[in-house]
Design goal:
By secondary structure, the chain is mostly helical. It has one domain (17-37, 62-224). It is 85% helix and 0% strand. The protein contains seven helices and no strands. The chain has helices at 7-13, 16-57, 63-72, 80-96, 102-124, 128-158, 165-230. It comes from Motilimonas pumila.
C-alpha cells in the first residue's frame, strides 16, 4: 500500500507538532497577504492624495480659501493637506496672539507640523514591522518543523529491521513541506516590506519637502506683513 504523497495526504500523515507548524505558517501567510493588500491600498491612496493636494496648493489658490476647504473636510485629511491644515491653523492662532514675535509664530507652526508629520508616517508604517517579523521568522519556523519531521522519520526507521526508501520518503517529504511553507510565507512578506518601506520613505520625503516649502511661504508672508506694519 503506497502512502498518499499529495499535499493533503502528507499533511494528514505528519506528526502533531509538524501539523501545528504548518497551520501556524498558513495563518502567518494569510495574515501577511491581508496586510500586503491593505497596505498597498493605503500607500496608493496616500500617494494620489499628496499629488492632488500639491497640484491644488501650487495652482495659486489663496491660502485662506484652501484652509477653509480643508476645514470643510477635516476628517478626511491626510498627508500634505493635513500638514497644511494643522500648520496654518496654528499659524493663524499664534498670529492673533498679542506679544508673539514672528520667530515664535514660525517655531510654533513648524513644531505643530512636525508632530503631524510624525503621526502621518506612523500611520503609513503600520503593519510593516509585522511583515518584517513574518519575513524573518517564517523560514526558521518551517526549518524547525522539517528538522523535527526528519528526526521522527529516522527514529521510526531505526525501529524496523529492513529499511527501504519507500518507508522513509513520506516522512521526509512531509517534513520538507514545512520548509516550503515557511519560504512561501516569508518571500512575499520580505518583498512587500522592502517595497512598502521604499514607498513610505518617498512619501515622507514628499511631506518634508512640502512642509519646508510651506514654512518658507509663511515666513515670507510674515516678513511682508511686518514690513507693511512698520511702514
Amino acid at each position: 500500500m503506497h502512502a498518499d504523497m499529495s499535499f493533503i495526504g502528507l499533511f494528514m500523515q505528519a506528526s502533531l507538532l509538524v501539523k501545528a507548524v504548518m497551520l501556524l505558517l498558513l495563518a502567518m501567510s494569510i495574515a501577511s497577504w491581508t496586510m500586503i493588500f491593505h497596505r498597498h491600498k493605503v500607500l496608493k491612496k496616500a500617494t494620489n492624495s499628496a499629488d492632488r493636494f500639491e497640484d491644488r496648493f501650487w495652482s495659486g489658490i489663496d491660502l485662506s480659501k484652501l484652509y477653509q476647504e480643508s476645514t470643510a473636510r477635516k476628517e478626511q485629511l491626510e498627508g500634505p493637506e493635513k500638514l497644511f491644515h494643522h500648520g496654518f491653523k496654528e499659524y493663524i492662532r499664534l498670529h492673533k496672539t498679542a506679544g508673539k514675535t514672528s520667530e515664535t509664530v514660525m517655531e510654533g507652526t513648524y513644531r505643530t507640523m512636525r508632530v503631524t508629520l510624525s503621526r502621518e508616517i506612523d500611520e503609513l508604517e503600520k503593519s510593516l514591522p509585522t511583515l518584517a517579523t513574518i519575513g524573518s521568522i517564517s523560514p526558521y519556523i518551517g526549518l524547525f518543523g522539517t528538522v523535527w519531521g526528519i528526526m521522527s522519520a529516522f527514529i521510526a526507521l531505526g525501529e524496523v529491521q529492513q529499511a527501504t526508501l519507500s518507508m522513509v520518503a513520506p516522512g521526509i517529504a512531509e517534513a520538507l513541506i514545512a520548509t516550503a511553507m515557511g519560504l512561501f510565507a516569508a518571500i512575499p512578506a520580505v518583498i512587500a516590506y522592502n517595497r512598502f518601506s521604499t514607498k513610505v520613505a518617498r512619501l515622507e520625503n514628499t511631506y518634508i519637502n512640502f512642509m519646508e516649502e510651506f514654512t518658507s511661504i509663511l515666513q515670507r508672508q510674515t516678513m511682508t506683513e511686518q514690513g507693511t506694519a512698520q511702514a
